[in-house]
Write a structure and sequence with these properties.
With 276 residues, this protein is of the alpha+beta class. The protein folds into 2 domains: 193 residues, Barwin-like endoglucanases (Beta Barrel); 73 residues, 2-Layer Sandwich (Alpha-Beta Plaits), CATH 3.30.70. The strands form 4 sheets. It has a 6-stranded mixed beta barrel with strand order 5-9-6-8-7-10. It has a 4-stranded antiparallel β-sheet with strand order 12-13-11-14.
Length: 276
């Protein structure tokens, strides 16, 4: 959030799937999160905005300098979206607002603060319009960090990240493509369960860490060994923040067991199989 670096300098957003637990037949948010099915499905209607005096100057994070755009007009980019929730709720955003994880907002490294953007999940074609009021996410390949509510609308909660297209919106401007309006209820369980309703997904947990840096270090080791799609799932256990490193999802328990055996062959130890 802006408060972590001072207004206008952005924040090193966690920007990952935050605080999940296993319940019933799929992933549901942990205690402290409102049920995604209860969130409003109304779309934001963009209107004229005045640029904030904060967050629109060049800033540097991890040795890299970012130059915010003066307008969202013409911005169209594809990359990875992530989301952020409870740890930042109520903190100051980079433009000086208070972050509300139940509002349709987002963080961008370069879009003006505030501005509007259309975000389309390329996995399921769901769309949402968000108001950009924060900086981040500062991870390779990631182009936008969604609020909890926006992630619920797009079906990103369970997967933590998703490939998206982000289009800058300027009120009153005619766009080359029509702006689709998503009339569906939020997808609580994420696109992989929406597309395979009868399928139950299994994950293999490789480690749990108190420090995000340690989880990232394990992710790099797994990548080097060619183990597919390692992810970090931040959670809170007994009041303690933990970063859970998991592989998957796998379609059935046999596939998860095979993945666990491969981990052992690679010298990583047996993983913990997480049942749906």
């Amino acid at each position: 959030m802006g408060s972590r670096y001072g207004a206008g300098y952005g924040r090193f957003a966690v920007g990952l799937c935050l605080a999940f637990m296993l319940a019933g037949c799929g992933f549901l948010p942990s205690t402290g999160y409102r049920n995604p099915a209860d969130l409003s499905t109304r779309n934001i209607v963009p209107h004229k905005l005045t640029l904030s005096p904060y967050g629109n100057s060049p800033y540097t994070v991890d040795g890299r300098t970012y130059y915010p755009l003066k307008t969202a007009a013409g911005y169209r980019k594809r990359g990875i979206a992530s989301w952020y929730g409870l740890p930042f709720n109520g903190q100051k955003t980079s433009d000086g607002e208070t972050y509300n994880m139940y509002a349709m907002t987002a963080a961008s490294k370069v879009l003006p603060l505030p501005s509007y953007a259309l975000v389309r999940n390329l996995n399921n074609n769901k769309t949402v319009i968000v108001r950009v009021n924060d900086r981040g996410p500062f991870y390779p390949g990631r182009i936008i960090d969604l609020s909890y509510a926006a992630a619920a609308r797009l079906g990103v909660l369970a997967t933590g990240t998703a490939p998206v297209e982000v289009v800058g919106l300027v009120p009153g401007e005619t766009h080359r493509r029509p702006i689709p309006v998503d009339r569906h209820e939020p997808d609580v369980f994420g696109p992989h369960l929406a597309q395979h309703a009868a399928r139950a997904d299994f994950f293999v947990q490789v480690g749990a860490f108190a420090r995000h840096q340690d989880a990232e270090r394990l992710i790099r080791r797994l990548d080097k060994k060619g183990l597919k799609d390692p992810r970090i799932f931040p959670d809170v256990v007994n009041g303690r923040a933990l970063y859970l490193v998991r592989l998957g999802p796998e379609a059935d328990k046999d596939a998860a067991l095979a993945l666990s055996r491969r981990l052992d062959r690679e010298g990583m130890g047996h993983g913990l199989i997480i049942d749906p």
